[in-house]
Write a structure and sequence with these properties.
Number of strands: 12
Strand content: 15-25%
Number of helices: 5
Order of helices and strands: HHEEEEEEEHEEEEEHH
Largest sheet: 6 strands, antiparallel
Structural class: alpha+beta
Helix content: 25-40%
Length: 332
């Protein structure tokens, strides 16, 4: 599988750069057809072209699966805490690190990729991290011709800080060989024009990626909105709990007053009812007396009318305007 120019443990960045320039536009393995590269092809291309550095396919080849290579959690870690505090940490192998809960962290990988014009790459998070609640963008493409380190966003969607150790496996990278083009294979004449990766976009620092992503062109990682929403929810819940507590106290006070008043309230109610009853009885009596007086008055009026009629008959003089005429004076 290997030839004399292979390096089993590739750590020399200057040597990787030299080999990349040598095979950037020339395919050393034309017999390999355009397809997803298997582990043997990945090993050969990395060792020959300097495609990954450092490249550490340990003795048991645990970092090389059938069609992908594992890249470690190493590099510069950019953290944004709940308080909006920004922190940059250099990851040390074997040390423990914590990604804040409900946050977006960024890792500027220590691994440098140098992709020839005929190879593209994709990466995905190791599945154990996904199952534990850590996420990143699905399957982003690393363009052919790219050279530099990757800035990877890590989303911790859990309610607890996520622990990870420097040097642990983080992502699996797969490599795909592009369809043939005369740019790197002169034996296949073609008319199509290949557009190479821009040279001024290679070996960019993490700050350039962050500046490009920021509307204010500031090299500060984006922060998750989840902590703020959680804080607002907690504050709303606390206010609701306080209001409920105050309402409970008010109800308690009201119950105490009811207990105090209820003892005398019944007697007061009885007294009020008795008073109303007595008032009604007195009123009814007064109404009865008034009715009797009116009846007596009417009887007296009728009797008086009768006497006046009798008197008119005796005098034979009509009554005028309700007055009785005086008798005529006698002559001397």
């Amino acid at each position: 599988m290997a030839s004399s120019n292979h390096i089993s443990d590739f750590k020399d960045d200057a040597e990787a750069e030299r080999r990349f320039k040598l095979y950037e536009k020339t395919d050393p393995y034309k017999e390999i057809k355009p397809a997803l590269l298997n582990s043997a092809d990945i090993f050969d291309y990395v060792s020959t072209t300097g495609m990954i550095c450092p490249f550490r396919p340990d003795p048991n080849l645990e970092k090389l699966k059938s069609a992908s290579y594992e890249v470690d959690f190493m590099g510069d870690l950019h953290l944004v805490h709940d308080s909006k505090k920004y922190e940059k940490i250099e990851v040390i192998e074997g040390e423990n690190y914590h990604l804040p809960k409900n946050s977006i962290s960024f890792l500027f990988l220590a691994t440098t990729f140098r992709l020839p014009d005929y190879i593209a790459a994709r990466f995905n998070l190791r599945i154990t991290h996904v199952h534990a609640g850590l996420l990143l963008g699905t399957g982003p493409l690393i363009d052919p011709g790219f050279a530099g380190r990757l800035l990877i966003p890590l989303h911790n969607l859990t309610s607890e800080d996520y622990g990870i150790k420097g040097g642990d496996g983080l992502i699996w990278v797969e490599f795909t060989k592009l369809s043939e083009n005369k740019r790197w294979n002169s034996d296949c004449p073609r008319e199509g024009e290949y557009r190479p990766f821009p040279a001024d976009h290679r070996y960019l620092p993490a700050s350039r990626y962050l500046e490009k992503a920021s509307p204010r062109k500031v090299a500060v990682p984006a922060s998750s909105s989840i902590p703020g929403e959680i804080k607002n929810s907690v504050e709303s819940a606390e206010r609701a709990a306080k209001s409920a507590e105050e309402a409970a106290e008010s109800v308690k006070d009201a119950r105490n007053w009811v207990r105090v008043i209820s003892g005398i309230g019944f007697l007061a109610l009885v007294a009020i009812v008795v008073s109303i009853y007595q008032l009604v009885q007195t009123t009814n009596k007064n109404i009865g007396d008034a009715s009797k007086n009116i009846s007596d008055y009417r009887e007296s009026q009728i009797l008086l009318e009768k006497r006046l009629n009798d008197l008119e008959g005796k005098l034979k003089v009509p009554r005028a305007a309700g007055k009785v005429p005086s008798p005529a004076p006698k002559s001397p």
